Amino acid sequence: MQTLTLSKCIRKAFRLRRENVRDSKMASCPTVFSRNAFHAFNETLLASTVNYRVITHGTNFLTFRRASSDRSFKEFNIQKFMDEAESGVIYLSLGSTVEPTAFEDLGNTFVQILGRLPQRIIMKWDPKLLHSVPNNVKVQKWIPQCEVLILAYELYGLPRSQKLLEKHFHFERENMPHIKDIVKNISVTFVTNHYSWGYVKPNLPNIVNVAGLHFTPPKSLPSNMQKFMDEAEFGVVFLSLGSTVEPSALDNLGNIFIQALKNIPQRVIMKWDPKLLQNIPDNVLVQEWIPQNEVLNTADLIKYLRRADRFTNLLHFFAHNHNHAEEVLNLPEIQNIIHSRDHYDLVIAELFYLDVFLAFGYKFKAPIVAMCPMNLMFFYSWILGNPYPSSYVPNQFLWYTENMTLFTRFSNTVFNFFSDHPNCRLFITHGGLHSALESINASVPFVGIPILSDQYYNMAAAEHFGIGRMVPFEKVSVKLFSEIQDVLYNPK
C-alpha cells in the first residue's frame, strides 16, 4: 500500500530548500524550519484562515480579506462594506454581555488606533459613545456575529483555496469538483483530543481521538547542561518562550521572570538572550538555544515554563499565509507530486486550514485521512457533518467549560514532554492543548499563562477539573511566585 503523507513531503522539501537555497526568501524565514509540524503548517502552508488575535482578555479580532458569498448582511449593508475592502476587514467585538458604557473612553481608543489602518473596521459598539468615526470604520450597536464568525471560512478561506486549486491543479479542472465538495469527502479525521480532557459531545464514527501522537523519545543532553541538572539538589525549573519569540520585544519580562524565580531553591535553565538580563543569579543558566525536548524529559525537571507563540509579529502571523501556501505549491518537489502519474492508495493531509491540499485525494482517487492538530473546531464540525450543539459544547476559542451560565451560552453559541519521575510536581505552561495533554499524561498539575486561541479554554478546563490554575498574561509579575507556591504546596 502506497501512502502519500503530505506533511513529510513538504517538510522534506523545506529542508532541501533551506540547505540549497539559503539566500532565498523561503530560507530567510527561520520559523518555516525550526518549529514542529503543527506550527510549520500553521505559519507557512495555510491557504485559508480565521485570524483570532487577542488584544485584551475577551477581545476577539477576526481578520479576513474580501471574498464573494451568496449570503449577505443586507440589513446592515455590511456585505457591501466588506466586499469593497481592498485591504481586508477587521472585526472587533467584546461579546454580548459587555456594556460599553462601563469602559469609559476605551471605544474612542479603539477607533483612534484602528482608524489608522488600511483595513476596514467593523466594530460592535454604541456609536453614541464615540466622538468621531473615520470612513473606514463601521459601528453598530448589534452585529450578527455568529454570521460573521461562521461565514468567515466561506467568505475568506474557501474562495482562496478554490483559486489555488484552479491554478495548481488546472490540468484536472474539467473534472475537478469545487473545493467545497472536496473538503466534505474526508474518510477519517484524527483529532488531537482525549475523552478525559474536555466534555461529553456526540462524534461521528470517523472522528477518532489520537491525543499523544506527538510524544517522542529524548536524546542525550549536552554535557554542560546535563551536569548542571544532575547537580541540582532540589530539581530544575525550565523557562522557554518557544523558538520564534524575540525576547527583545518583551520589554522587561525576562528580568521579571528572574525576580520571580531567583528565590526558589531549584536551579533554573532559561532560554533567553543573556545580554537582555540584569544580575543573573548563580542558580540560573541562560542560553539563547536549549534542546527543549531533552531538558523536559530529564528526571530532575520539576517545573516547566514554556510558550510557543509570537508577540511582536502576531499581527503579520496570518497576513501572508496565502502567499506562503502559494510558495509551497510552487516548490519543485510539490509540483512533481502534483504532476506525478504514480498511484497512491491513501492520502494523509492536514485539516488545519489546508483545504487545498485535500485535492490530492481527488487527483489520486484515494481516500483522505485528515489530521487535526487541535480539537475539532466548530466550522470543521460543520463541514464534516459532525454534531456541534453550541448550546452546551464550548467553543475552544473561548474560555468556557461545559458548566456555562445562560449568558456565556449566548457568547459560546456566537462565537512534551514530562517524565513520570516523582520529582515532576508542577508544569508552568502557556496552556496549549499539547502541553495540557503532556501534563495530564504525567499526572502533573500545571499553571497556565494563556495568550490566545484555545489556550483560554484549555486553562478554564484545567481549573474546572481541578488540575491547574490560570494566570492572565497581563498579570504576570513577581506575584507569579505566590501562585507557583500555592499550586506546589496546597493539598488541594
Sequence-ordered SSE layout with sheet pairings:
Layout: E1 3-5, H1 6-20, H2 31-34, H3 37-45, E2 51-52, E3 60-64, H4 78-83, E4 89-93, H5 106-114, E5 120-124, E6 137-140, H6 145-168, H7 179-182, E7 188-191, E8 207-209, H8 223-230, E9 236-240, H9 253-261, E10 267-271, E11 284-287, H10 292-296, E12 301-306, H11 321-330, H12 332-338, E13 346-350, H13 359-363, E14 368-372, H14 378-384, H15 406-414, E15 427-429, H16 433-441, E16 446-448, H17 455-465, E17 468-470, H18 480-489
Parallel strand pairs: 1-13, 4-5, 5-6, 7-8, 7-14, 9-10, 9-12, 10-11, 12-15, 13-14, 15-16, 16-17
Antiparallel strand pairs: 2-3, 3-4
Helix pairs in contact: 3-11
Widest sheet, order of strands: 11-10-9-12-15-16-17
Name the shape in a single word: globular
Largest sheet: 7 strands, parallel
For the record, the CATH class of the domain at 223-313 and 417-489 is Alpha Beta
CATH architecture of the domain at 223-313 and 417-489: 3-Layer(aba) Sandwich
Give a short overview.
The protein has 18 helices and 17 strands. It is of the alpha/beta class.
How would you describe this structure to a colleague?
The strands form 3 sheets. The chain has a 7-stranded parallel sheet, with helices on both faces. A 5-stranded parallel sheet has the order 1-13-14-7-8. The chain has a 5-stranded mixed sheet with strand order 2-3-4-5-6. Mean pLDDT is 65; it is low at 21-76, 301-321 and 405-424. Among the domains are: 51-151, no CATH class; 223-313 and 417-489, Rossmann fold (3-Layer(aba) Sandwich), CATH 3.40.50.2000. The longest helix has 24 residues, at 145-168. α3 (37-45) packs across α11. The protein has 18 helices and 17 strands. The protein is an alpha/beta fold and 492 residues long. The protein has helices at 6-20, 31-34, 37-45, 78-83, 106-114, 145-168, 179-182, 223-230, 253-261, 292-296, 321-330, 332-338, 359-363, 378-384, 406-414, 433-441, 455-465, 480-489; strands spanning 3-5, 51-52, 60-64, 89-93, 120-124, 137-140, 188-191, 207-209, 236-240, 267-271, 284-287, 301-306, 346-350, 368-372, 427-429, 446-448, 468-470. Belongs to the UDP-glycosyltransferase family. InterPro entries: UDP-glycosyltransferase (IPR050271), UDP_glucos_trans (IPR002213). It comes from Parthenolecanium corni.
